[in-house]
Specification:
Helix content: 25-40%
Number of helices: 10
Strand content: 15-25%
Shape: elongated
Distance between the termini: 68 Å
Largest sheet: 7 strands, mixed
Strand order of the largest sheet: 5-4-3-6-9-11-10
Structural class: alpha/beta
Order of helices and strands: HHHHHEEHEHEHEEEEHEHEE
Oligomer: single chain
Length: about 270
């Protein structure tokens, strides 16, 4: 069968599960043949033999399993990270979280940053790369997730820069904290999930009955620890409740939007 025929059959299977079925077909075949995508395009008329494992993976994707879990890798900030069912798949929106932390801390001298809920480690790893003088502690309640984050830290050469801690919120962090960053679970417990999301770990998705409970607790911890800066990702419909909660504590939250114009995160800087 020609490569272009394989891609055509594969893309047909993905029409109902992907906005980019042709690209996903190319990514999957590229992975199985261990050839770059431009090679597939240049050799589209060539005959190829694909294994049953490839067609099994096509079936998995047609049942809405995310391609990143099938390939066991995902792109974030232009870098490749390992992911599997133990961690959330990185979203482009979370790059904005890293951007805001960097812009708000790049002038600090050797700050201690703590990430609450590090998951695959992508945020802490990118901050370690962008802020080489920072000390970073990455906390997650899941030991399984920490296995993934440690592997990613080693892959990107920052395994000696980040301290990974198994715990809830700030458990295990005894020293003073300058910056708290988090992309915590923020989906309401009763909300229905997209079929793709149903494959991802629920502990990393649901943030409580209303969805903002964990974010409010993180604001409490920021205030309690007297940290200088808090930066969090949040749900698109949580600005009003989080703004009001910050004001109740005498804090001022600043909000940012994602590329689609939805409210996506906030930061709070402690007034000197």
């Amino acid at each position: 069968m020609q490569i272009k025929e394989v891609l055509h059959l594969c893309a047909k299977e993905f029409i109902d599960v992907s906005d980019i079925p042709q690209k996903e077909a190319m990514l999957l075949l590229s992975h199985h043949l261990q050839k770059p995508m431009n090679w597939l395009m240049a050799h589209s008329d060539d005959d190829t033999e694909v294994t049953q494992e490839f067609w099994n993976d096509v079936k998995r994707r047609s049942l809405h399993e995310p391609l990143e879990y099938i390939l066991q890798k995902a792109s974030f900030y232009g870098r490749e990270f390992e992911v599997d069912h133990r961690v959330l798949i990185p979203r482009p929106e979370t790059e904005l979280l890293v951007d805001h932390v960097f812009s708000l801390t790049c002038d600090l001298q050797k700050p201690h940053l703590v990430e609450i809920g590090c998951g695959s480690g992508i945020v802490s790893i990118m901050l370690a790369l962008k802020l080489p003088t920072a000390r970073i502690s990455a906390v997650d309640i899941s030991q399984e997730a920490l296995h993934v984050s440690r592997a990613n830290a080693k892959k990107h050469g920052v395994e000696d820069t980040i301290s990974f801690v198994c715990g809830s919120y700030l458990d295990g962090i005894d020293e003073s904290i300058d910056v708290i960053v988090s992309n915590p679970p923020y989906i309401a417990s009763g909300a229905s999930l997209d079929k793709n999301l149903s494959y991802e770990p629920s502990v990393a998705l649901y943030g409580g009955e209303k969805g903002d409970e964990m974010l409010k607790h993180i604001i409490d911890l920021f205030d309690e620890k007297k940290a200088m800066l808090l930066v969090c990702e949040m749900g698109y419909d949580q600005k009003i409740s989080l703004d009001a909660y910050a004001q109740e504590k005498g804090l001022r939250a600043n909000f940012y939007t994602d590329l689609a114009g939805f409210d996506r995160g906030f930061w709070i800087r402690r007034e000197k």
